[in-house]
Specification:
Blueprint: H1 9-37, H2 49-52, H3 54-87, H4 93-100, H5 108-119, H6 124-131, H7 143-167, H8 171-179, H9 184-213, H10 216-221, H11 228-238, H12 242-269, H13 273-279
Helix pairs in contact: 3-7, 3-9, 5-7, 7-9, 8-9, 9-12, 9-13, 11-12
Length: about 280
């Protein structure tokens, strides 16, 4: 067996990192590079198709509106439920929290199926409305069904995040604020809000990015309200328009990346409750 000279620490680190670098190049750099180059095959204007073509712009605006609405509702409900669960101890609390976070294990298609069972043509609401003589009312296949499905999918994440963040808040700061005469709203503004602001930013970005790119739930429910992931799927699968699908994918990815970057900036610049307390509650 030939004698091999010992590797230097730097060479050893490079040798260990080489498989990861090859994997990164093969499954991220090359596909992303191809994605960036595809729209150029149909001209530079293809890169801006999401803004210049009415159909794609409408799909983008509908996706933005739906994602923003779901994010706002998720933050409000998640904060209320999370603070309540963090500050109250009662029998069955652990079981209730576990049941509330159970949808985390469900894929989007199953959540879409749940919405159809509730508000679809053969769902519970349709059966009840038919029995009452109002016809078979449905809401599963439009904006209402998508909103409910996205909210059902996102809310458990917000509840878990807010519960953990609220439990980590320093109760001494709240007690100090109350001893200085602060009422409940002042405590919420000066103690709870600064302490929960990083969680709010990260949770908002996570929910918004998830809603923007959600496919399984949208594929099940979006027959009357088209969102951008379904538009991309149709261009890629039904029309084999790879260049346009790549352009729309870039727009979707850029928006979600900006949302995540904004959340990181918000988390880094958020004031702490201690700083607010020092400034005077």
């Amino acid at each position: 067996m030939a004698w091999l000279p010992p590797l230097s620490p730097r060479a050893l680190r490079l040798a260990c990192a080489l498989p990861a670098l090859v994997f990164f190049a093969a499954f991220w750099l090359l596909p992303v590079g191809q994605l960036l180059m595809l729209p150029a095959s149909q001209g530079g204007c293809t890169y801006f198709a999401v803004l210049t073509e009415a159909r794609y712009l409408k799909s983008l605006l509908q996706t933005l509106a739906l994602s923003a609405g779901v994010t706002a509702a998720t933050l409000v409900l998640g904060a209320v439920v999370g603070l309540t669960l963090a500050r109250r101890r009662f029998r069955g609390r652990a079981l209730l929290l576990s049941l509330m976070t159970l949808p985390l294990s469900f894929p989007g298609v199953i959540i879409g199926f749940f919405v159809i069972l509730l508000g679809g043509r053969q769902g519970l609401v349709a059966d009840l409305s038919s029995a009452l003589g109002a016809g078979r009312l449905t809401f599963a296949y439009g904006l209402g069904g998508l909103f409910l499905g996205y909210l059902y999918f996102s809310l458990p994440r917000a509840i878990a995040s807010y519960t953990a963040a609220a439990e980590a808040l320093d109760s001494a700061l709240e007690e100090a604020a109350r001893s200085l005469g602060a009422n409940r709203w002042q405590v919420a503004r000066d103690v709870w809000w600064p302490g929960l602001l990083p969680t709010t930013g990260s949770c908002a970005a996570m929910v918004f990015a998830t809603a923007m790119g959600a496919f399984g739930t949208a594929f099940t429910l979006a027959s009357r309200y088209e969102v951008l992931p379904i538009t991309i799927y149709n261009e890629f699968t039904n029309y084999a328009n790879f260049a346009l699908a790549a352009s729309l994918s870039m727009a979707l990815g850029l928006i979600t990346w900006l949302a995540l970057m904004a959340a990181r900036w918000l988390g880094a610049s958020a004031p702490t409750p201690l700083a607010k307390s020092a400034a005077g509650v």
